[in-house]
Request: fold
Amino acid sequence: MTRPRLPFAPLALLALACMAPVAAQVPDGHFVTSHGRFASAPGLGGLWLHHPRRPGQSVPVTGLPNALTGAGASGQAGANCVVRLSDGRLLVGTMSAAPGSVELHVVALAGNAYDHTRSASMTIGTAGGVFNLGMLSEIQIVSPTQVLVCIDGIASPPALAGQVLAIVDWAAASVTPIPVLGLPPGGLVQAAATDGVVWAYVALTFPNSTTTLFAVPYPGGGLAIPLATLAGLVSAIDIDAAGMLLVAIGTAASGDLAVLTPAGTVLRRTRITSALLNGFAPETVTGGFAFVDGSALSGRVSWGDGNGLATLLAGPPAGGWGIPTGVDVAPDPVAYDAPSGGGPLWRLAPNPGGLPLAGNGAFHVAVDPPLAGAWLLGCAPAQVRNVIGLGIDLLVSPQGAINGTMSAGTIALPIPASFPRGLTVYVQTFHLASPLAASPGLRITTL
Reply:
């Protein structure tokens, strides 16, 4: 297929015009990891940001409160899971030894610093339970202001004592438990997920290092239905676009990613690391994953392709960073707003041209369906509704923008190795319809 190629000279001029200060959020395309403080590992916990492909380009988030670093705590403490909101802020769950508090934090960043003016926190409960350790061990976004959380070791308030699932409305600072009935005693729940419609899934790990996966009616709760028993400790669960369960499972010497049907049938189990896999997050743009493990060297951060092959990105700094406990991915490219006039969507899961890495001479983006049309590439987004009565919305500022045509829904944007990193551009496509149609906007940041 022949793709129209963007002339390098106009793109170079656009690059100079589009350079901007560091964004106050996790940079597009990057990984963010949560870290807990453990007696077995040097250093405090907290949050770190990582380039998705370039080893050694990891920076800590500075200025975090003690609840996220574990500073001053007498036992296991700090950040235990993390998820990125669409606006770039982070939701971070904590862990604490009894009788400390288990909290959910909304974290805003200014560069790689904690922004006190736009961050907040709420207490979920007081730690206790069989292991004298309370935690939020997984967070899944279920609405713009609500998340499903996996909890364990909460002693109070009474409504949460002994519960393992809850819905937290972080905007309203409310917590609603989801009753889970029939779980056998003596286990530790560290992973949960929901399909958002019918079922939630809970992993209960026992002292003999086996884990039983249960299905629970969602959102009302009810009797837990056992689906499968797996060898190892399950530390994270996700659900892919096909509805399959992705499960991080392993031992102190191995970390695997398993794929199960919703009925609990194991389709495959792939070895990822030689240490316990503490968390993973899909990198939707490539079909790959971000991984964190709990190795004897205090844990590592890796990226993996769709087959699970992992490549090391970062290990602990000289002073340590506790142990990585969770990870999330900021997508790049990312669509914004909506199509107009019946226009196409962007193909982003995965993006056919991969990540916008400097040196990716084959980088391109595409719309679906693959319509012929024109594109506009600019330095800034816009929001001009129903442009001159044509029924389409203009989502890229035309000031200083360049444009071109495409024949098969694809825009080639080759990125030379010398191209500046951190450049953000915005793209939109336009198509002949009745009378016109336009795609959503697309934000691309070079890595």
Summary: Residues 8-18 form the longest helix (11 residues). The two ends are 26 Å apart (CA to CA). Residues 1-11 have pLDDT under 50 and may be disordered.
